[in-house]
Amino acid sequence: MRWLFALVLVLLAANVIWWAWRGQPGPLWSEHAAAADAEPPAPVPVRPADAGQSTGAHPPTTAAPDPPQAPPGVPRATPVSGTSAPPSPTGPPAPNAAAPSGLVVPVQGIAPGDLADTFGDARSGERMHEALDIMAPAGTPVLAVADGHVEKLFDSERGGLTVYQFEPSGAWCYYYAHLQSYAPGLAEGQALKRGDVIGFVGSSGNADPAAPHLHFAVFALTPERQWWTGTPVNPYPLLTGAPTR
Fold first, then answer.
1. Which residues pair with 107 in a beta bridge?
2. Separation of alpha carbons 142 and 171, rounded Å
3. Left (φ > 0), alpha (ψ -120 to 50) or beta: where does 240 sit?
4. pLDDT digits over 184-233, tens only?
5. Domain boundaries, given as residue ranges, for the chain
6. Which CATH architecture has domain 77-240?
7. Which pTM does this prediction carry?
8. Pair 118, 133: CB distance under 8 Å
9. CB within 8 Å of 241: residues ≥ 6 apart
10. Any bridge partners for residue 202, and if so which?
């Protein structure tokens, strides 16, 4: 038995020498056993983007950009039908836009000779009046000055109940403000004929309740034809045929 014990010691010593010299397990240890004892490799994580591509998932959506705002320097207002952009009389007129003609006075019972040219009058805050004020009793019918359609119904802080009418060519906008109420059934997109009743004189917005009137303006639209952007034009000569002062 001593010779067997001596043989085991010799083999152990040989294995240690082999391991020290080669830097790997000696012949007494199986490489397969060492591999079995090794830890399995860590799984490779899958990025969400890769997962989406492999499963057909849609890419993540981004927030919609903010809607465009009207130019600064315009009073804020509460819209009638969902938009927050207040009117802004700025921007160049559409090219080759002929001046409107054949307009009727937009207040029933008022003759052209009864009008006063208030365009350009000074207003508070160094503002300039860019319209005509047509005085009339509250409830007097307000008339469409020409054919066209209702582009926008708008309830603003200063103008109160307002109507924006585009004429058929899309070059001009007619603006009616401080209305007491709209004509029954009036709606955006509605076709209008010259002389149609669209509302009634009032003092909504910042108008003096003791002085009901129609604030009537004419705007030359830009090529984009946006109801809140345009260049104000004096309505007085368009309604009376008289030269501007």
1. 142
2. 22
3. alpha
4. 999 999 999 999 999 999 999 999 999 999 999 999 999 999 998 899 99
5. 77-240
6. Distorted Sandwich (2.70)
7. 0.61
8. yes
9. 112
10. 213
